[in-house]
Structures are given as structure tokens and as C-alpha cells.
Automatic annotation (TrEMBL):
Source organism: Deefgea piscis
Protein name: LEA type 2 family protein
Pfam family, one: LEA_2
Top-level taxon of the source organism: Bacteria
Gene Ontology terms: biological process: response to desiccation
Lineage: Bacteria, Pseudomonadati, Pseudomonadota, Betaproteobacteria, Neisseriales
């Protein structure tokens, strides 16, 4: 075994022993915090979705990106990605802004469906965290009232 292989083995064992101490890790919570119009084109519309990410753990959590999908009334509405790097403070929260796009077809379906006073939504996706292969998935459902306030379920 070469010197470099020994160093790598010691580092891997150290990381594994450190991870074994993380017994009560809870997934961060992700909630819809806002939706702003960026650009309304004929075929494509762009929005900024604000996601409030809450860390219920007693340790800071680095996030180096995310991908998300927003469904409204059970229909796909918009998708987006962000490579924004943030550190969720221990027992804290932060707002991450994600540029999303939708198309005229998705908007038209929602306009036809706005006969009720509330819109059901689902925001889902993945938070990309170093050392967590595949990231941490999230899925949150809620409703938008006629006043535009988001109510998580």
C-alpha cells in the first residue's frame, strides 16, 4: 500500500466514523415562500420561486445546489435548477431563489382550472449536499388561497 493510499484510507475511515455519530439526522424542510414573474413571453414564461429551507438539525448543512418541480392542481407547472451555494445554519433557515420556466400550455391549463378559491400545489425536488450521493429529496404540498398566501399541509 502506497503512502497516498494509506492517507485516503485513514480519511475514509475518519469520515465513516464521524457519520456514524449522526444518528438523529432529520431531512431539511422546504416550503414555498414566494413566486415572482420575471418574463412573460408568448411561448415561455419565467418566474423566480423562493423556497424557505429549514434545518432542524444541530449542525450546519452545506447545500451546493438544488433542482425543483412545481405542480399546481395536480398538473406540471414549472421546473428549475439553482447552483446557489448556501450553508443552512444549525436550527435555522434560509431562502433560496430558483429561476423556473413554464410554457403557454401549462399556464393555459391553470387559467382554465382557476374556478376554485384555492390552488393546490406540490413543490418537490432535491437538495444537493456534499457527501450525500443523489442529494436529499423533498416534497411539500400546500394551497394558495385567493389572497395569494401559501398554506403548507
Amino acid at each position: 500500500m502506497t503512502w497516498l493510499q494509506r492517507v485516503v484510507a485513514v480519511l475514509v475511515l475518519s469520515l465513516l466514523s464521524a457519520c456514524s455519530g449522526i444518528v438523529n439526522f432529520e431531512k431539511p424542510q422546504v416550503n414555498l415562500a414566494g413566486l415572482e414573474v420575471l418574463d412573460l413571453g408568448l411561448l415561455e414564461q419565467k418566474f423566480v420561486v423562493s423556497l424557505r429551507v429549514t434545518n432542524p438539525n444541530d449542525m450546519a448543512l452545506p447545500i451546493d445546489g438544488l433542482k425543483m418541480k412545481l405542480d399546481v392542481n395536480g398538473q406540471p407547472f414549472a421546473t428549475g435548477v439553482s447552483n446557489q451555494k448556501v450553508t443552512l445554519p444549525r436550527l435555522g433557515e434560509t431562502v433560496v431563489k430558483v429561476n423556473v420556466t413554464t410554457n403557454l400550455s401549462n399556464i393555459w391549463k391553470q387559467i382554465k382550472a382557476i374556478q376554485s378559491k384555492t390552488l393546490a400545489y406540490t413543490v418537490s425536488g432535491q437538495l444537493f449536499v456534499p457527501l450525500v450521493p443523489g442529494g436529499i429529496s423533498f416534497n411539500r404540498q400546500g394551497e394558495l388561497s385567493s389572497l395569494g398566501a401559501a398554506v403548507a399541509k
